[in-house]
Amino acid sequence: MSDNKVQIFDTTLRDGEQVPGCKLNTNQKLIIAERLDLLGVDVIEAGFPVSSPGDFLSVSEISKIVKNATVCGLTRAVENDIKIAAESLQYAKRPRIHTGIGTSESHIKYKFNTTQEKVIERGIAAVKYAKSFVEDVEFYAEDAGRTDNEFLARVCEAMIKAGATVLNIPDTTGYCLPEEYGAKIKYLKENVKGIENVIISCHCHNDLGLATANSIAGAVHGARQIECTINGIGERAGNTALEEVVMIMKQHPYLKLNTDINTKLLYDTSLMVSEKMGMIVQPNKAIVGANAFAHSSGIHQDGVIKNRETYEIIDPTEVGVTESAIVLTARSGRAALAYRAKKIGYELTKLQLDDVYKEFLLYADKKKEIMNEDIHEIMKNTNVVSAVA
Ligand code: KIV
Ligand code: ZN
Question: Please, is 252 exposed, middle or buried when counting C-beta atoms within 10 Å of its C-beta (0-12, 13-18, 19+)?
């Protein structure tokens, strides 16, 4: 594996599925898992097997069909969770157990009512037990974002010694600023013995809208796995959006970070997850929202018609969107109207365009968006005949 490759760990089916009302059945999960494998993700977190018989079954069935990706099951640092996860992963070609425990002051005091030392002991026992079933064991230090760096480094070192192959540093509450999260990863790289033998993973939540920025900051400072979900779905304000981190790394080659994702499948995968989960994607969502490649103001439309790159940094076909959209509204100019009219068969002279544009504005002030049927009507009112009619 190249030093610059960032593994994509997709948790749509685990953290993503924790969205209220978005429960998927096993069949739906299998369809999504198959698509994620095709998309090129490195790891599919298929569920939390001990949580319910349905989740156990899903992880087990997904393990049977996934061809390329590692299949991962989540556990707490609890023996029974780990045993059940191992059972559910028995058919996986590449199984991974993802175990861990809260490490922040708040988790240690309020969730566990224990001490730092006991937390480390529980972590070690969990990693060692998981190791007795599978080679690939990822450890998460829950709420690492709010965990003191010195203590976090001690935790990481102990987990490496116990056999962890991946160290997940979650910003569970979405608290960190990108600089702070990047510095945390850098601190671990510089202060944990054996860190060069494991992969550091970013798992960022979006409570302050910083999940993507934090994950990229982590990768810039040496993390080589990003945990994310399609459309950024997940607990509360969601997780890091897979399509965002992947396209950031692709659009900024100077970062020297890359992934194995087939970006041409991103849009379709977003639609599939949205439809199966019954969760609409906000229209202004980066990369996959309905408006991500739509232009509606006259100035922008004029620029895009002359050259797409004036207002677009991504070629829409790179993410599986057929073409940029020129949306006709009262804010559109003559260039956009002429462009659309030509597409549906009207080649307008300058004089005709002046007339048609006046009529267009009257329509556009009454309607939110002018559709092709409206243009045909406008042409009729202004006595323009289609070239293809
Ligand atoms: O956000 C988080 O800390 C998690 C862990 C269970 C990995 O989802
Ligand atoms: Zn999470």
Answer: exposed
Q: What is the per-residue burial (b if ≥16 Cβ within 10 Å, else e) of 45-56?
A: bbbbbbeeeebb
**Facing residues of 166 across strands?**
138, 199
Per-residue pLDDT tens for 331-365?
999 999 999 999 999 999 999 999 999 999 999 99
Atom 7 (ligand 1) nearest CA: 140
Ligand 1 atom, smallest distance to 143 CA: 3
Closest CA to 187 of 165, 203, 169: 169
Q: What is the pLDDT of residue 2?
A: 76
* pLDDT tens-digit readout, 125-163: 999 999 999 999 999 999 999 999 999 999 999 999 999
CA of 195 to the centre of ligand 2 (A): 22
Ligand 2: distance of its center to the CA of 94 in Å? 22
